[in-house]
Specification:
Elements: E1 6-7, H1 9-21, E2 25-28, E3 37-41, E4 45-47, E5 53-55, H2 56-63, E6 70-73, E7 76-79, E8 81-84, E9 89-94, E10 101-104, E11 107-108, H3 117-126, E12 134-137, H4 144-149, E13 155-160, H5 163-171, H6 176-180, E14 184-188, H7 191-194, E15 203-208, H8 222-231, E16 232-241, H9 248-263, E17 267-272, E18 277-281
Parallel strand pairs: 12-13, 12-15, 13-14, 15-16
Antiparallel strand pairs: 1-6, 2-3, 3-4, 4-5, 6-7, 8-9, 9-10, 10-11, 16-18, 17-18
Helix pairs in contact: 1-2
Bound molecules: S-adenosylmethionine.
S-adenosylmethionine is lined by residues 109, 121, 139-145, 159-162, 165, 190-192, 209-211, 216, 219.
Length: 282
């Protein structure tokens, strides 16, 4: 299957430099840095290997937008941005030098200060290594934790509340394995309710990477933690993203999370500050 080009200002900068230098051929990534192709500069724009011409005006439009990625459809750029009727929030894909993040009403879904969404994902996964067996990922987002877990696990079940988030993920080249990898099963719904469908001790690992506490308090509740404990196999491990432990709210939320996890039956509940979360065992 061929994918449309997905570009941000990071990919358009070398194109504009090539035009200024009078360079005829230039390498550009059509998928936010994953691969490169050679394009030809013409007076009207750049010509991609598939014959598509992207006009200089379109390239300048993309280049002037720091916080957005664009999909090229019929040679025209369209901002990757959608309004969710479901949550009344605006979702968009924001470029970084590595994997993009998703902005939800302007708030990045991954850590980007001093790190990038891909390194952020590796830190989360590292806390519950080896990631083996049957894995539950309670909050799909762009699918990065599910994709990384699926590299070593037998199977990953990932749950997303908002279909709009998945529409953004579908356009993200870094999320492709979420849709292509048969090791991953996607479910749509509220993890709080859906967890009841899983049998006792179904999962060997759980990755719980919910929205901030103030946006999804029920995913930080003792009742939900008791369900996480019930579906986790004996000897299984949980990673729970909480947020910056050094921020004022992060510190107190972390203490409450750890207390409720212990009350729900988890043992060896410990902070993992590099991953902005905690781990716990059953
Ligand atoms: C921090 S992001 C997850 C990032 C993801 N782990 C990744 O690697 O890209 C949180 C996601 O959870 C979704 N979400 C919010 N409430 C949810 C719920 N109750 N059940 C399942 N997903 C939920 C949000 O729409 C958002 O996409």
């Amino acid at each position: 299957m061929t994918h449309p080009a997905i570009l941000s200002h990071i990919q358009t900068q070398p194109l504009l430099r090539a035009r200024a230098a009078g360079q005829h051929r230039v390498e550009v990534s059509p998928d936010l840095g994953l691969t490169t192709v050679e394009v030809v500069t013409e007076s009207a724009g750049v010509r991609f290997p598939n014959g598509e011409l992207l006009r200089w005006e379109a390239i300048e439009e993309i280049n002037s937008s720091e916080n957005n990625c664009f999909v090229i459809e019929d040679s025209e750029p369209r901002k990757i941005q959608l309004f969710s009727e479901f949550t009344n929030r605006l979702y968009s894909l924001m470029p970084t030098r590595a994997a993009p993040t998703m902005l939800v009403s302007g708030i990045p879904m991954h850590r980007i200060k001093g790190t990038d969404p891909y390194r952020d994902t590796l830190e989360k996964i590292k806390t519950v290594k080896p990631v083996v067996g049957y894995v539950l990922d309670t909050a799909t987002g762009l699918g990065y934790t599910a994709i990384e877990a699926a590299k070593t696990a037998d199977h990953v079940v990932t749950i997303e509340l908002d279909p709009t988030a998945l529409e953004i993920a579908r356009l993200n080249p870094w999320s492709r394995a979420l849709f292509d990898n048969p090791t991953i099963t996607q479910r749509i719904g509220d993890s709080y309710d859906m967890i009841e469908e899983f049998g006792d001790q179904t999962f060997t690992r759980i990755i719980h990477d919910p929205p901030a506490f103030r946006l999804a308090g029920h995913l930080y509740s003792g009742k939900f933690y008791a369900e996480l404990h019930r579906v986790l196999r004996r000897g299984g491990r949980l990673f729970h993203y909480v947020g910056n432990p050094e921020s004022k709210s992060g510190g107190s939320i972390t203490r409450g999370v750890m207390r409720r996890l212990r009350e729900a039956g988890f043992s060896r509940v410990a902070r993992r500050p590099r991953a902005f979360g905690v781990v716990a065992f059953r």
